[in-house]
Amino acid sequence: MWGPAIVWLLRLMVGAVFLFSGFTKGIDPWGSIYKFDEYLRSFGFYDYNGLLTFMAFSVSAVEFMLGAFMLLGIYRRFTPWAMLAMMTVMVPLTLYIAITNDVADCGCFGDAITLSNWGTFWKNVALTVALVYLVIFNRKVKNIYGFAVQWIVAVLSVAYLLMVAWLGYSFQPLIDFRPFPVGTIVSGNDDTADNSEYIFIYEKNGLAQEFTLDSLPDDTWAFVDRRPVESGGVDTMVAAAAHRPITVLDTDYGVADDVILGHGEQLLLLFPSLSDVVIPFTYRINEICDFCGKHGIDVVGLTSGGKDEIAEWNDLSMADYPMYVMDDSELKMLARGNPAAVLLRDGAVAWKRTMQSMSIDNIDDAASIDDVAMADVEPSHVLYFISLIYLSAMLLVLVVNRTHLVVKFSLRRVRKSRKKTVNLQPGNENQQE
């Protein structure tokens, strides 16, 4: 009696975890690339950019597809075995990461949910136990889709996730889980409201903890983040949440207050890795900078590279905009892409784009920098449209696949009803006796 219920409960739990994990990785493929790079570097492997991109797309698509399979009861034998095979890799890997703490967090759910390394390990152990049960009993509970259309569900699921990932890679993530969403006021270290204080977040042995300025931990704790907290009630706390300070350096001196104007329009060009920027981008960047100069838009370059890299870039690209240094992790949180562009209006983030998504074909006819960046496209609307198509297609396949069963069941009910009516007629009762 309880067997089918337990199977369906585990299907829902395990399927939801895989589906959400694949979706959050796919929605932000750049974040997945950065996280996989951390994993490879922890084992001494460097400069595998092509492999990282392939991993970001393939891992997210496989996880999302398997999650959909499990939720819908598709490929009942293959799915739990495939998931269990992944767990045989992830359990020892996350155990190693939890012990060594070489990676700050696993990145299982992108930036949407951050788990400690030990929390990630025990989550994988729980999934493994559930999958062992499903390997044995999953086939004994029927699925939702028929066998003949299961491949269509697989194709639709992979196509949906890859489309979401491609848009996130080419433009920006369709959902921004990072600390600098559109509307955030970017400021220098001293540019927040009066009476403000900082809360510093440090991590040690997988445990994240908040500290004030006068209670900072010793050097065995790793810095994670900081946020401004203001006194004065709920209203000022909301105002503080809308501000996000950044650190900008010029020869080791903080210049964020001077660089971030806080008024008018300002274009920030982000270069997480100057050495990996494709050379043809230099022409596009210079064209955009010329357009900004004609329209009174201040341009600032930000990179995590050193002085020599900046000097080489300036010679190579003939850049006429100032370049400053920014922490690598903060740079990647601000926007995705290498290079990327962020437009500030009166200090607030108006939009973000990868440089490859910005068009200069009609730049001479553009009325504003928004036209160059195609800023009229709303990411949430795009995600809603794609998701609606995916769910509608899945529903259509289900209806087509299962309609004959509904018809067959209805006809069977009609036949039983007619037979019962005939048997109840007076003449038929005598015949039966």
Give the helix/strand class.
alpha/beta
Instruction: Detail the poorly predicted runs.
Output: 190-196, 230-241
> What's the helical proportion of residues?
40-55%
| Estimated radius of gyration | 28 Å
- In the sheet with the most strands, the strands line up as 7-6-10-9-8-11-12
- Number-wise, the strands total 12
Order of helices and strands: HHHHHHEEEEHEEEHEHEHEHEEHHH
Number of helical segments with 4 or more residues = 14
Largest sheet report = 7 strands, mixed
Question: What fraction of residues sit in β-strands?
Answer: 5-15%
Mean pLDDT: 83
N- and C-termini, Cα separation: 40 Å
Any idea what the shape is?
globular
Provide keyphrases for this structure.
433 residues; alpha/beta; Glutaredoxin; 7-stranded mixed β-sheet; 3-stranded antiparallel β-sheet; globular
Tell me what the structure shows:
There is one protein chain. The chain has 433 residues and is of the alpha/beta class. Among the domains are: 2-170, no CATH class; 260-376, Glutaredoxin, CATH 3.40.30.10. 53% of the residues lie in helices and 15% in strands. It is built from 14 helices and twelve strands. The protein has helices at 2-27, 29-42, 49-72, 78-100, 117-137, 150-170, 234-242, 256-259, 281-294, 307-317, 328-334, 369-373, 379-423, 426-432; strands at residues 185-187, 196-204, 207-211, 222-230, 243-245, 248-250, 253-254, 265-271, 298-303, 323-326, 340-345, 348-354. Strands 7-6-10-9-8-11-12 form a seven-stranded mixed beta sheet. The chain has a three-stranded antiparallel beta sheet with strand order 3-2-4. A two-stranded parallel sheet has the order 1-5. Helix 2 packs across helix 3. The longest helix has 45 residues, at 379-423. It is globular and about 100 Å long. It starts with a helix and ends with a helix.
